[in-house]
């Protein structure tokens, strides 16, 4: 058993990670257990019908790796009449957004498959033990946390009210978002199948068949063939050198990690001036300039690229030249005393609003996240990976220290992660101080309606993300210590588990 530091979105998820760590689990086991609990109790944000990414820093200091379990475009064997079961909803959530929901918005999930692959490679306790805390939470019920409640206050009728089981689960009898205990029928049994059969249950097994059959019956594209063909992809993480740290973040075809890498390279040591724990005005101005450059390039080029890998590498190469010459989601981070680090980010989009019959699983609407589908709702060929803002990131210091970090927050993911890493590595802030620091986000960068959003230090809000970070650091005497930092913008929770 190794010491483990964990940062998670809520207390129950943190408890799950700690429970698994005490049973002999490492950072990977603890992070996956916590993330599975969020798929139960972070209603509206994530579910078992999620996509996600896991970035791992192996404890031996070898190169970091990302396991891609993000969404595929469905439609294998579907006829042209399918995919019509959709409609648009406009909500003020997240500053105002229009999303597409219904059965036709459901993409091919992959997060649990990625978890299983990650566990197979780096886990140290049995898979069943990793899933067990989520089974217990589903069986015993849970109360909605602040992030779920905040989101559902906007969309509980429009998105989560049209499906009978969904409406019953999240509403009190008076039609308001429930403040009671949420117990979703069939969900605990579904998790027990996943504990027994692994991700196969959600793809080629009973759960996958129930999900596909219900989606197709309601006008969606997700076929049994889509779920059976799905495979997580293991890739070298996108590496970023930052002083004495080597970071590994989410590579293409996701786009969030590319933005994080470009921002950190362009910041080039910023913040230079940190006084009383705050970035200087000059440094914040540079941060805005960097965000405008990177996010503007994303909107102009990367979001519409026919060869994202080539275009992203070319952009990062140009960023390197510039440096030398002059982002609805949940995240869990864990680090252990052996130097291993694990960052997990998962999402089910804004939610399709439907619970697949007989499973208790809320289904995603990732085809209906319009900002991530510039080619249109069903514009990609079946089996193609969708775009993603996610940027789970790990880092290894030349002295043996290790870091895991990430955030939810749609297009604010990359700006949140880059700012916290820059404040910690470049600015010398403590990990918690870097997480707590007010943030800046350039919305619609380079467009006529661009808005530079500057967070009020007296009113930190979840709009700017919900960073979870853990650290294994070496002190002046050479001793190693674990730290964990949760974001005050959400109901984050941390745990430090020490070996006997």
Give a written overview of the molecule:
- The strands form six sheets. This protein has a seven-stranded antiparallel β-sheet with strand order 6-3-2-12-11-1-21, covered by helices on one side. The protein has a six-stranded antiparallel β-sheet with strand order 7-8-15-16-19-20. The protein has a two-stranded antiparallel ribbon with strand order 4-5.
- The chain is built from 15 helices and 21 strands.
- The protein has helices at 11-22, 27-41, 111-122, 127-140, 146-155, 164-170, 187-197, 200-203, 206-217, 224-229, 256-267, 281-300, 308-325, 413-425, 431-436, and strands spanning 4-8, 51-57, 65-69, 87-91, 97-101, 233-236, 238-242, 245-249, 274-275, 278-279, 330-336, 341-347, 355-356, 361-362, 393-397, 402-406, 440-443, 451-454, 468-474, 480-486, 493-497.
- The radius of gyration is 21 Å and the shape is globular.
- Helix 1 (11-22) packs antiparallel against helix 4 (127-140), helix 2 runs parallel beside helix 4 and helix 11 (256-267) packs parallel to helix 13 (308-325).
- Residues 321-327 have low confidence and may be disordered.
- It is 34% helix and 20% strand.
- It folds into two domains: 10-234 and 341-372, no CATH class; 238-332 and 389-497, 4-Layer Sandwich (Glutamine Phosphoribosylpyrophosphate, subunit 1, domain 1).
- With 500 residues, the chain is of the alpha+beta class.
- It comes from Aeromicrobium erythreum.
- Pfam families: G_glu_transpept.
- Belongs to the gamma-glutamyltransferase family.
């Amino acid at each position: 058993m190794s010491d483990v530091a964990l940062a998670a979105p809520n207390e129950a998820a943190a408890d799950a990670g700690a429970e698994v760590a005490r049973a002999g689990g490492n950072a990977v086991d603890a992070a996956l257990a916590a993330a599975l609990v969020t798929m139960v109790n972070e209603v509206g944000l994530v579910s078992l019908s999620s996509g996600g990414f896991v970035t791992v820093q192996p404890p031996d200091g070898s190169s970091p790796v990302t396991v891609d379990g993000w969404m595929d475009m469905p439609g294998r064997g579907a006829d042209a009449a399918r995919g019509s079961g959709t409609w648009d909803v406009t909500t003020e959530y997240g500053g105002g957004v229009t999303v597409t929901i219904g059965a036709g918005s459901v993409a091919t999930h992959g997060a649990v498959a990625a978890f299983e692959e990650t566990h197979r490679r780096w886990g140290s306790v049995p898979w069943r033990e990793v899933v067990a805390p989520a089974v217990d939470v589903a069986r015993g019920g849970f109360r909605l946390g602040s992030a779920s409640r905040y989101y559902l206050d906007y969309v509980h009728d429009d998105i989560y009210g049209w499906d009978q089981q969904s409406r019953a689960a999240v509403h009190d009898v008076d039609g308001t978002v429930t403040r009671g205990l949420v117990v979703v029928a069939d969900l605990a049994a579904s998790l027990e199948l996943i504990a027994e059969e692994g991700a196969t249950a959600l793809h080629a097994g009973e759960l996958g068949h129930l999900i596909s059959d219900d989606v197709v019956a309601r006008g969606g594209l997700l076929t049994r063939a889509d779920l059976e063909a799905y495979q997580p992809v293991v890739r070298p993480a996108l590496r970023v050198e930052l002083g004495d740290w080597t970071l590994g973040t989410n590579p293409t075809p996701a786009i969030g990690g590319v933005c994080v890498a470009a921002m950190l390279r362009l910041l080039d040591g910023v913040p230079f001036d940190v006084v009383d724990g705050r970035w200087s005005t000059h440094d914040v101005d540079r941060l805005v300039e960097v965000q405008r450059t990177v996010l503007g390039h994303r909107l102009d080029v990367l979001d519409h690229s026919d060869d994202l890998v080539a275009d992203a590498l070319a952009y990062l190469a140009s960023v390197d030249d510039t440096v030398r010459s002059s982002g609805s989601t949940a995240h869990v981070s864990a680090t252990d005393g052996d130097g291993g680090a694990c960052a997990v980010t998962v999402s089910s989009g804004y939610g399709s609003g439907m619970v697949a019959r007989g499973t208790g699983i809320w289904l995603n609407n990732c085809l209906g996240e319009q900002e991530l589908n510039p080619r249109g709702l069903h514009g990609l060929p079946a089996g193609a990976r969708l775009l993603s803002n996610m940027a789970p990131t790990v880092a290894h210091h030349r002295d043996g220290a290790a870091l895991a970090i990430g955030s939810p927050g749609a297009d604010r993911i990359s700006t949140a992660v880059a700012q916290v890493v820059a404040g910690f590595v470049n600015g010398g802030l403590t990990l918690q101080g870097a997480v707590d620091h007010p943030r800046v986000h350039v919305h619609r960068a380079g467009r006529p309606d661009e808005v530079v959003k500057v967070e009020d230090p007296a009113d930190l809000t979840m709009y700017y993300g919900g960073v979870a970070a853990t650290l294994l650091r070496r002190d002046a005497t050479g001793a190693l210590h674990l730290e964990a930092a949760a974001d005050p913008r959400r109901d984050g929770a941390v745990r430090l588990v020490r070996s006997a």
